[in-house]
Design a protein that fits this description.
Layout: H1 3-7, E1 10-13, H2 21-34, E2 38-41, E3 55-60, H3 69-79, E4 85-89, H4 92-96, H5 100-113, E5 118-122, H6 130-142, E6 147-149, H7 162-172, E7 177-181, H8 187-196, E8 200-203, H9 206-210
Parallel strand pairs: 1-2, 1-8, 2-3, 3-4, 4-5, 5-6, 6-7, 7-8
Helix pairs in contact: 3-5, 5-6, 6-7, 7-8
Length: 215
């Protein structure tokens, strides 16, 4: 793939807790220079201004997902007027406990709180079994999500893997997008995620990775 095509698959990401408003300005400037699809930031850092053609994504229920649904609803409703996309974290405790109706209900509540916003559901794939990955993707689709996403990048179990991305793509087909995020730091890793079926990449090292692709 060409550099510009890969750039248009990237959510240029800044989710460090210590990130400042000045850091976001720098993030947006770099995103414009690189031609990335969007920037992804924390809720307290929106609205993001002067983005030009770069879209804005924001996380909800991040990074643990162990928030009451009411909190996720309030967070989504607060940021939705200012962003194009929301990346929410599922309730992993419900997933590991096999309460898939609860997982789906939690996702649907966020979907309903931000009905016009692209919704990506972070399933934290490294913490799930293959069967749980499949069920999490199915719950996300049933609840009205637009994407399923591998990871927050903060879980000790790890980030994205080719295996998880491939399984997620096989589960959702071409009906939903698949975002690979977490631990993708080289051009080779990015290329492998795309080959496995990722249609979006969450990257904080976007400039370094794009250097590995031809103009």
């Amino acid at each position: 793939m060409k550099k510009r095509d890969v750039a248009q698959m990237i959510d240029h990401t800044l989710l460090k807790p210590e990130a400042t408003a000045e850091d976001v300005v720098a993030l947006v400037d770099e995103a414009k220079q690189l031609g990335t699809y969007s920037v992804c930031v924390s809720p307290s850092l929106v609205p993001v201004t002067d983005t030009g053609d770069v879209k804005v994504a924001c996380v909800v229920g991040f990074p643990s997902g162990a928030h009451p649904t009411a909190s996720k609803i309030a967070e989504a409703a607060a940021v939705a007027p200012h962003v194009d996309e929301i990346d929410m974290v599922i309730n992993l405790g419900l997933a590991k406990g096999g309460d898939w109706a609860g997982v789906e209900s939690d996702i649907r509540a966020v979907r309903e709180a931000a009905p016009e916003t692209v919704l990506k559901v972070i399933i934290e794939s490294a913490a799930l079994t293959d069967d749980e990955i499949i069920k999490a993707c199915q719950a996300s689709e049933s609840a009205g999500a637009d994407f399923v996403k591998t990871s927050t990048g903060f879980h000790p179990a790890g980030g994205a893997s080719e295996h998880a991305v491939k399984l997620m793509r096989e589960t959702v087909g071409d009906r939903l997008g698949v975002k690979a995020s977490g631990g993708i730091r080289t051009p080779e890793a990015a290329a492998s995620m795309i080959s496995a079926g990722a249609s979006r990449l969450g990257l904080s090292s976007s400039a370094v990775i794009l250097e590995g692709f031809d103009d």
